[in-house]
Amino acid sequence: MKNQLILLGLLIGTSSAQGLKDLAAPRNLDVGAAINMFQLMDNPDYTDILEKDFNVVVAENAMKMDASQPQRGEFNFALGDLLSSYAQKNNMKLRGHTLLWHEQVPKWMTDGNFGKDELEEVMKNHIQTVASHYKGRVYAWDVVNEAISDSGGMRDTLWRRTLGDDFIARAFRYAREADPNAKLFYNDYNSETMNRKSNDIFEMVKKLKADGVPIDGVGMQMHLTLVAPPSITEIQQNMKRLEGLGLEVHITEFDVRTTGFMGTVAERNAATAKLYKDVVNVCLQAKNCTTFIVWGVTDGQSWLKAGSPLMWDAFFKPNPAYFAVQEALQGK
Ligand code: 9MR
């Protein structure tokens, strides 16, 4: 009976049985979501969506340094392991976010007053302990997150101040040593079009490649803003130049800040849906863009806390953006 209903659904053109991941698979695209662990643990509406639509999961917060090494040398993998077994059970890939960042670091790290050698040891130990723990389970890691400044050049962080600019190269080498099979990514925001920041990232990853540093790809976070949408042509150009370096692109944290939009909610949602569709299309067209990940599932749980940035509303009902992505994947 169930099969007949699915067949009927397909015949009359509804694709309710097919999740986004099913539509994306023949187009060689992975579709993922950042996971809120509280929702994962006790909300079946949430897990129903995950299991229907996504084949990649990434912890929104649970695998960051403050969570995984809350005290120096004391690691806590409880939540990450839970997500990892959930992913395994549901045939999903687990993406790792993130090994090295300047935010969400534990207090012992920021207050540590470490000298160069000691901080290098902290960095190496963190990267290698975490990457070894998830070896064979995390298929791709954001090794270094947001290390380029918004105003040009390297961002001034504790890592860079103490360790020097080349901490990035060493971070990638440590990660590769610990897990030779995971794909290693540099991940950042506001760097999807051709701009100062994406130029800096391009030059950086070009040098890393030239120096033989093990880097496989660049994560474009894509926290977009509806009132100042990015140029799709420039996104395409940016993906293309990374392809020229042999680098893969993952869209890692897609959402749309919709506040400030002048118009009705319906107009706002339609414009948001178009942006979703345009970006999925540009990714489908780029040879090296293999993954589209949204930064959360429902609007109610988004870090943006306003508007309709995601594909489901706060009541778990699909937004127009959901159907727009569906259409893009179907080539409509
Ligand atoms: O969505 C995350 C939010 O719950 C955290 O409070 C915040 C802490 O800085 O991090 C958010 O996720 C960020 C991600 O890890 C890196 N890129 C920007 C994301 C949104 O701020």
Structure description:
The protein is of the alpha/beta class and 332 residues long. It has one domain: TIM Barrel (Alpha-Beta Barrel), CATH 3.20.20.80. The chain has 14 helices and nine strands. An eight-stranded parallel barrel has the order 1-2-3-4-5-6-8-9, surrounded by five helices. Helix 8 runs parallel beside helix 10 and helix 13 runs parallel beside helix 14. The longest helix is centred in the C-terminal third of the chain and has 21 residues. The relative contact order is 0.11. The site of ligand 9MR has 9 residues, from loops.
Q: Got a strand count?
A: 9
The N- and C-terminal alpha carbons lie at a distance of 29 Å
Shape: globular
Looking at the structure, the CATH topology is: TIM Barrel
Order of helices and strands: HHEHHEHHEHHEHHEHEEHEHEH
Q: How many structurally independent domains?
A: 1
Provide the gyration radius in Å: 20 Å
